[in-house]
Structure formats: C-alpha cells, structure tokens
Write a structure and sequence with these properties.
mainly beta, Immunoglobulin-like, 8-stranded antiparallel beta sheet, 5-stranded antiparallel beta sheet
Length: 509
C-alpha cells in the first residue's frame, strides 16, 4: 500500500486498454463543515473523462463503513459525481468522501471499497470499476496560548511557538522545528473545514527564521497566510473568533478609544462591523447562532449585544439586555433558548456569581439552578464555557459550588447537566483556585480537554504543564505527552482549544 502525496493530484489507476483515457485520481480537493453533524471533513477522488465519447456514471457506491464515511453529493461541494451524470470529453467530477468525527482523538484507519459503473453514451459498452482505498480519520486537537516548547517525556522538548497540534499520541508543529507557529500569544482558534484560523497578539508566522506577515489574524492550511485589512493603529488584538454561516468573525479591541473591534473574515481579508448604538468595549466573548450569521457578544465591561445579519442587510445591532453585568465577560455559550455568560462579575440578582444566563424568549436573566451559587473570592471567575449535548463544561478559577443541600468541590472545572440539573466534579479538579486558572475546554467523544495556567493536578503524579484530559467514561485524568512549556522554562498558558477532523486517502489496489 502506497501513501499518496496529498494534497498533490496523483494518478493512481487506469482500467484496461479499452479505457485508458478514463482516469481516476486520488486527490485532496476541499472540505466542508456541516452544522447539522458538527464538523465534517470531506475529500475527493477525481473522475475525469479524457476520451472522445461521453460517459454516464451509474451505481456509485461504497461497501461498508457507511457510519464513518459516506459518499456526499450536496450542492455545497464542487462538482459532485451523481448517478446518471454525463461526462463529456475533458469533463470531470468528484467522488466526495465525507467523514464524521470519530469518538476519540487519534487515528482510525479502515479499507473503503468504492465502485461504480460507467457506460458510453449511444453505445452498448458498459465498464465497471472497483477499487479499494484505505481512509485515515485523524481528529487532531489544536492548542493556542503563550508557550515556546512542546514537552516530550524522556526526550528533548521541541520548539513550539504559541500554537501546536496534538494528534492523539504526540505533539506536531505548525511548521518546521526551526520555523513554526507565531511570534506572540494566540487567544482564539476556530476550524472551517481544513482551514485553521487564529487570533491574538502576534505579528509574524514561522519565527525565528521567517517573517511572514500575519498581523493579529492568520489562517493555516499547511502554510501560514495573513489576513489583510486588519487595522494597525492603537495596537489591536483579537480575543475571540466564531464561525458564521457565510464568514469567520473576529472580535477584540484597541488600547485607545473606542476600544471596540469586530469584523468578518472573507477571502483572507478583514471587514470591520460598525459598532452601532450599543456601548460595547473590547469584545472578549462571541458565538454565532447555529446555522446563521447572527452573533452573541460580550465585552470587557459587562455589556452584551446581539448582531443580526440577514440577506437583505449589512447587519443590525440589538441589545440582549439593557442591564450591564458590571465586569468582564470572558466567555459565552448558547443552549436552547438561552445564552450563558461567564466572567468575573458578581451578580446574583441577574444569575450567579461568575455565571449568568439570558432567556431569549422571556427576556430575563436566569440561573442554571436557583439554589446554586459559586463560592466567591477568585480573580478570574468563569473563563471558559463549552456546550456539548445536554452538558455545559464550566472552566475558570473557582473552588466550589454551593448547592441547596451540600457543596460540590470543583477546583476550576465542573460539568453541569441541563437535564438532571446537577453538577459533576472531575476527580479533584485541575489545580487549585488560588494560584491556577483554566481558560479553555473542548469535548471530543468521551474525552474532555482542558487548558490554562496550571502545572499540576492532585490526581496525577506527573506535571501536566498547562493541559490535561479527563476521560468521561473511566473518570480519570491523563497528560498530553509532557504538556507545554513557557519561555525560560516558566509555566505556559493555554488560551484556546479546538478539535478538527481530517481525512487521508490511501490507494490499496
């Protein structure tokens, strides 16, 4: 079995002397994100007709593994092959293979027979083709923050400049050992198909060797690409990214008035969204309403907002509530008819210390549970919210939740069940609520990944070095290699985690 040099188009098969000009190429072409099935990765096999006689495709099918990989023919994918399709001379189409996230980070490999018939138009000639490909699903975790090395136990650590990739078994670089990542902090990461977008406070990619300009926003697709038109005055930075229906959105701010900064990324260019009449400051938290370009935002002064985008307008600002939460909103997460905000605020009349919900229908503040409250006294409060199914991951700097009947000791991370309305502690938590803080979390399958400023957790003998994983089934903590190391050996800080699936196609016969 020979691994194809993706993404280069590689000729892999002809059929017979009669059909030498009918080509099947294995090729990485593009990718798609399907909101209904979370993140889906799509890659294609190119079918081209290089002969004079038109052909018709029929009986296009795969054998086995349909739950993991399917042939996709949606309108949002380029030139999808469909049954009954006619290909004239020099025309082509793609057999798109689409993979859903596997249940765990790591690599899943299996054989995938793909076959179809094709017949010549106005001819009795019918040719059958069948070939087996091996498809590798690799769900990788991208990690951004402030660090300079990826720590590998029992070996020498490798340079990793503020962003790295965990493939389920080991650390990988976005670049080469001598030139990778970006030259300053990464605060946010989102994935859009095969593209990885990052925002933060950086200027260049691939330090220290290269000086690729990637001022504050960048895209990675195997190479670094800068985003054009980012305002350069007053030292901007980006804290938050979100994926909308038609664009990537980036929120942040300036050191000088008006502080507010929000815009959309289209075709590697940044377009500012005007502030409107809502007195927003630096945007720290942002999420898109699923399947739309509508945005929920929260700023560093406790103000919330809702930016509504329709096909007929350039977007209109609306207030979620005229009530200001009074302090930094670090994170937010929509769930059902509610949006939940996390931050440093102490507003029990609006929700809870560090955590408040807004009912979009009743137009009132709400709480996860009227009888529960966070114990106060931390500096950061709730800094990370991730909604997955009927669960809400709550991360930050806090020691416990006080319920009606008892106390649940969490130590910086807890799991809230919207159905049972109960908190679940993850062992003894991650670090302590005095010196440590978690800034980010991501759930993939049965594993919950957390990152922040934390060196050790009570349940593990070895240092985690700012990132760890909790198994939701076996209920235990584990390390990711040797974690991440900051400059001069200091503790690293992880600000952003995001999982991204990918496909590799191997030719088996």
């Amino acid at each position: 079995m020979r691994k194809l040099a993706l993404p280069v188009i590689v000729f892999v098969s002809c059929f017979s002397a009669q059909s030498q000009s009918f080509a099947i190429d294995s090729v990485t072409v593009s990718s798609v994100t399907d909101a209904a099935l979370t993140h889906l990765s799509a890659k294609a096999i190119k079918v081209s007709n290089n002969q004079d006689t038109p052909i018709i495709i029929s009986n296009l099918a795969i054998t086995g593994h349909e739950s993991q990989v399917q042939i996709y023919s949606g309108d949002d994918l380029e030139n999808s092959c469909v049954n009954g399709q006619k290909l004239d001379k020099d025309n082509f189409c793609y057999v798109w293979l689409q993979a859903k996230k596997s249940d765990d980070l790591g690599t899943v490999t299996f054989n995938l027979p793909i076959s179809f018939d094709y017949s010549a138009v106005n001819s009795k000639t019918i040719n059958k083709w069948s070939s087996t490909y091996s498809v590798t699903i690799d769900n990788s975790l991208y990690v951004g923050g402030s660090f300079s090395k990826a720590n590998i136990p029992d070996t020498q650590s490798m340079p990793a400049n503020n962003i790295a990739k965990w493939n389920g078994k080991s650390w990988e670089l976005l670049g080469t050992p001598g030139a990778n990542g970006v030259d300053n902090s990464v605060y946010s990461i989102v994935t859009n198909g095969l593209d990885i977008y990052i925002g933060g406070w950086f200027n260049h990619a691939n330090p220290p060797v290269s000086n690729i300009d990637v001022f504050r926003l960048a895209r990675w697709n195997g190479n670094w690409v800068g985003i054009n038109n980012v305002p350069v005055d007053h030292d901007p930075l980006f804290y938050s990214l979100a994926i909308g229906k038609s664009a990537i959105y980036a929120g942040g701010g300036f050191d000088a008035d008006p502080h507010y900064l929000l815009g959309r990324i289209e075709k590697d260019a940044f377009y500012t969204i005007p502030q409107g009449e809502i007195p927003l400051s630096q945007i720290h938290a942002m999420a898109a309403k699923p399947g739309s370009d509508d945005l929920y935002v929260g700023d560093d002064a406790g103000q919330t907002g809702f930016w509504s985008k329709s096909d007929e307008s350039d977007g209109v600002w609306k207030e979620l509530t005229t009530t200001n939460l009074g302090s930094i909103i670090y994170t937010l997460a929509p769930y059902g008819n509610n949006v939940y905000f996390g931050g440093t605020f102490s507003a029990p009349e609006k929700g809870d210390n560090y955590l408040a919900g807004w009912d979009l229908i009743a137009k009132t503040f709400t709480k996860l549970n009227p009888d529960d409250k966070f114990n106060t006294g931390s500096y950061f409060g709730v800094t990370g919210l991730v909604q997955a199914g009927d669960y809400l991951v709550v991360a930050g700097q806090f020691d416990k939740v006080i319920t009606k009947d008892s106390e649940v000791v969490l130590n910086n991370v807890g799991l809230w069940n919207f159905v049972t309305k109960q908190w679940t502690a993850l062992g003894n938590g991650a670090g302590d609520a005095t010196n440590d803080c978690l800034y980010s979390a991501a759930i993939v399958g049965n594993k919950l990944y957390v990152g922040g400023y934390v060196k050790r957790i009570q349940d593990l003998k070895n240092d985690i070095n700012s990132i760890a994983v909790w198994n939701l089934v076996t209920k235990n903590w584990d390390t990711l290699g040797g974690g991440l190391i900051g400059d001069y050996g200091n503790t690293a800080t992880v600000y952003a985690l995001v999982a991204a699936p990918s496909l590799t196609i191997w030719k088996s016969n």
